[in-house]
């Protein structure tokens, strides 16, 4: 097994080309396989994904077509020791985020202590005044969290982004594993891989544990989707089906007798927990956007009265903000009393004059992101940008510096992908999924590995041409 080129850190190969221990069992199996058979399996995986409909819509695509998310059949493998460190760091960060949100919507001690500027709240649409003074059932704000990680060395994992609003991608984690087990069942007897297939059961259990006090002994759960035209609709339908929950749109729900009630064949029945995949602004036309037809009129009144749980809580998007992200080391230390186990990527806040000067002077070497952006949109990757693109972004930065942060271009780790010509290294990131309830924090051993399929590319988002891999966490 060989790879044509090297990055700073290749997760499969040592610098001398020998196999790292994590991949030893897998590589032994791979080298014994017929290459023609592997190519046929690769093609079969694509047919499988098309058959079950694992697609997504790309916003802004003139054709409006659904696209297949490319799947690479070589797993990304993480050792048990590496995962233990990651899990400790993820749990610490998620605890801090939940405590941070509780504080922001109540006493705001972190602002009084001078550790976070007040303008980050005042000038931020993601901070919802409707949540001030209210504590969600069980004290949980972030029921489902996705923490985006990148690797830059043997023991160097950095947090690239926090997804505390409506993190997506877990259905692809599950389908990637199912595909691998269907194509290569013998592999899972040879390599001790921790399971991820029980995530929907754990999600349902975690959501029910967050039900309001008015719920019965078996709380009802519904997944609220914007509808079939949403880019993540496949995932909404998939999770509802896997959890045994109802998939509903806003038109299926109404507020009646102080509860949110769902239309059924037997009339309307109360819903206790709503796993919403609708943005805050569209959740309640009486509290937010009055033109919204995606939400439920009056749901915020029921919520604040303790009649329903909304997961994730409205207002959690403030923790996704990239300007807030730059303060996460201080936030973790403030609420846990500990140094962060997982570090941030170094970040320049363009709202600060000295940082803006540095960014403008070094734009061709940096990655610049919109503070409220996501999905790889609205960003600049300096080293791969033309002079015209750099000039256009300089103008944007000068006009609204507070809208942007900048980060160094990281030497992301690579893992091999399967190509017709053989194995080739490509850059990856990792999104582990975390469930939070009053019973504790539950981290699924694995996550969604996104891979940049274009040679040299650092952009892994599916909307920007990236693909996915099955992520293996080795058992002890």
Task: Supply the key terms.
UCP005522; 5-stranded mixed beta sheet; alpha+beta; CP_ATPgrasp_2; disordered N terminus; 24% strand; Circularly permuted type 2 ATP-grasp protein; single chain
Intertermini distance: 25 Å
What are the segments in which pLDDT stays under 50 over at least 5 consecutive residues? Answer: 2-7, 57-65
Broad shape: globular
Beta-strand residue fraction: 15-25%
Mean pLDDT: 91
Report the biggest beta sheet as strand number plus sense, adding barrel if it closes.
5 strands, mixed
> SS-based structural class?
alpha+beta
Radius of gyration using CA atoms only: 23 Å
Instruction: Kindly state the percentage of residues in helix.
Output: 25-40%
**Number of strand elements:** 23
Number of helices: 14
Give the strand order, joined by hyphens, for the main sheet. 3-23-22-19-18
Pfam families: CP_ATPgrasp_2
Domain Circularly permuted ATP-grasp type: 75-452
InterPro entries: ATP-dep_Glu-Cys_Ligase-2, CP_ATPgrasp_2, UCP005522
Protein name: Circularly permuted type 2 ATP-grasp protein
């Amino acid at each position: 097994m060989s790879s044509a080129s090297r990055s700073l850190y290749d997760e499969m190969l040592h610098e001398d080309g020998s196999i790292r221990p994590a991949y030893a069992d897998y590589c032994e199996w791979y080298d014994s396989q017929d290459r023609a058979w592997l190519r046929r399996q690769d093609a079969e995986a694509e047919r499988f994904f098309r058959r079950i409909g694992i697609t997504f819509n790309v916003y802004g695509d003139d054709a409006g077509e659904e696209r297949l998310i490319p799947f690479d059949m070589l797993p990304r493998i993480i050792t048990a020791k590496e995962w233990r460190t990651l899990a400790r760091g993820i749990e610490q960060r998620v605890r801090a985020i939940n405590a941070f949100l509780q504080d922001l919507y109540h006493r705001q001690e972190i602002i009084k202590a001078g550790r976070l500027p007040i303008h980050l709240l005042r000038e931020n649409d993601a901070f919802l005044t409707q949540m001030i003074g209210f504590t969600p059932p069980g004290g949980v704000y972030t029921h489902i969290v996705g923490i985006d990680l990148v690797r830059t060395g043997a023991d160097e994992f950095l947090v690239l982004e926090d997804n505390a609003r409506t993190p997506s991608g877990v259905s692809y984690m599950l389908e990637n594993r199912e595909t691998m087990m269907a194509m290569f069942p013998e592999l899972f007897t040879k390599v001790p891989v921790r399971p991820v297939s029980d995530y929907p059961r754990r999600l349902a259990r975690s959501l029910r544990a967050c039900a309001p006090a008015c719920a019965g002994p078996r709380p009802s759960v519904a997944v609220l989707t914007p509808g079939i035209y949403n880019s993540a609709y496949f995932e909404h339908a998939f999770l509802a089906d896997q959890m045994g929950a109802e998939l509903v749109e806003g038109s299926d729900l109404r507020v009646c007798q102080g509860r949110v009630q769902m239309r059924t064949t037997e009339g309307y029945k109360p819903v206790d927990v709503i796993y919403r995949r609708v943005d805050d602004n569209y959740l309640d036309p009486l509290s937010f956007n009055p033109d919204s037809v995606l939400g439920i009129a009056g749901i915020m009144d029921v919520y604040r009265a303790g009649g329903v749980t909304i997961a994730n809580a409205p207002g959690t998007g403030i923790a996704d903000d990239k300007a807030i992200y730059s303060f996460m080391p201080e936030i973790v230390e403030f609420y846990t009393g500990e140094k962060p186990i997982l570090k941030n990527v170094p970040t320049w806040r363009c709202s600060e004059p000295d940082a803006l000067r540095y960014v403008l002077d070094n734009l061709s070497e940096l990655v610049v992101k919109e503070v409220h952006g996501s999905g790889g949109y609205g960003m600049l990757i300096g080293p791969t940008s033309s002079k015209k693109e750099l000039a256009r972004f300089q103008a944007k930065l000068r006009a609204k510096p507070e809208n942007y942060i900048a980060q160094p271009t990281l030497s992301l780790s690579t893992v091999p992908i399967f190509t017709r010509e053989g194995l080739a290294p490509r850059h990856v990131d990792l999104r582990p999924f975390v469930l939070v309830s009053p019973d504790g924090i539950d981290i699924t051993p694995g996550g969604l590995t996104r891979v940049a399929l274009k040679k040299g590319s650092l952009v892994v988002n599916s909307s920007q041409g990236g693909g996915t891999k099955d992520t293996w966490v080795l058992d002890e």
